[in-house]
Amino acid sequence: MVGGRARVRVRTPPGFPRSAGYDLDWQLEGTMGPNVLWLAEALTQVLPIHPEERVLDLGCGKALSSIFLAREFWAQVTATDLWTPEEDNQRRIEEAGVADRVTPVRAEAHALPFGEAEFDVVISLDAYHYFGTDDLYIGTIHRVLKPGGRFGIVVPGLKTDVTSEGIPAHLQPYWHWDFVSFHSPEWWLRHWEKTGLLQVELADWVPDGWRHWLAWMEICADRGQTGAAAERDMLVKDAGRTLGFARVVGRRPANS
Ligand SMILES: C[S@@+](CC[C@H](N)C(=O)[O-])C[C@H]1O[C@@H](n2cnc3c(N)ncnc32)[C@H](O)[C@@H]1O
Predict the structure, then answer these.
(1) CA of 165 to the centre of ligand 1 (A)
(2) Arithmetic mean of pLDDT, 53-57
(3) Can you give the pTM of this predicted structure?
(4) Nearest CA to ligand 1 atom 15
(5) CA distances for 176 relative to 125, 145, 218, 247, angstroms
(6) Is residue 10 part of a domain?
(7) In the chain, how many domains are there?
């Protein structure tokens, strides 16, 4: 299979018609957690991407979402990641036939090798919570976005932030310390708006996000992927009470 078009059908949730066309094995080889094509589709339904727009895919992992944005919307995508070697993403991008529209760049989020106002859109899928909870990080997003440019994230989140009352009892057996970076949509809204650098246009909970997360973990667990069975069990136990995906979209004001 070359570059993602359908050979084996995935049990794609309804509402994600674009993702349904991509090969299951390709998605499984490139997965680093929840299904990133479904996250990309959930985001682009509220943050439309237009042909030739310059898009930064920040924390793109194995660049599946970058390939998706180039194929589906004809965007010019910079696929930036820390953990994945640039040459691995270059190979995947070439195999997908989008080397003219996707450029891989290995970079740490605090040291992005981009100039001021280079991008029309910045997106980050299942990645921004690794560095974006820092109060000052939004300054980097503001710097690389054009005035009027848009920024959107989808990240694992908690319906209500964990308080001094602690972790919900039913999640304690599964809780990793780094879940402290999971937050509610309202938390992200305040986190961005208090800086005055971005206007938040939407902060919501991806509809049925926990069900999508669970559906993908069931597929990954069936294929024996490390950690997937425990994540599936956690999502079954939680049943959407606490966990899901926060989806947040903001804009750099045109005059800033
Ligand atoms: C869970 S993976 C998700 C990857 C991809 N977006 C996806 O959903 O398949 C998180 C990604 O965040 C990236 N990441 C974490 N910390 C980072 C940092 N400080 N700078 C840049 N990327 C970072 C990692 O390289 C990793 O690929």
Answers:
(1) 30
(2) 99
(3) 0.95
(4) 130
(5) 20, 33, 20, 22
(6) no
(7) 1
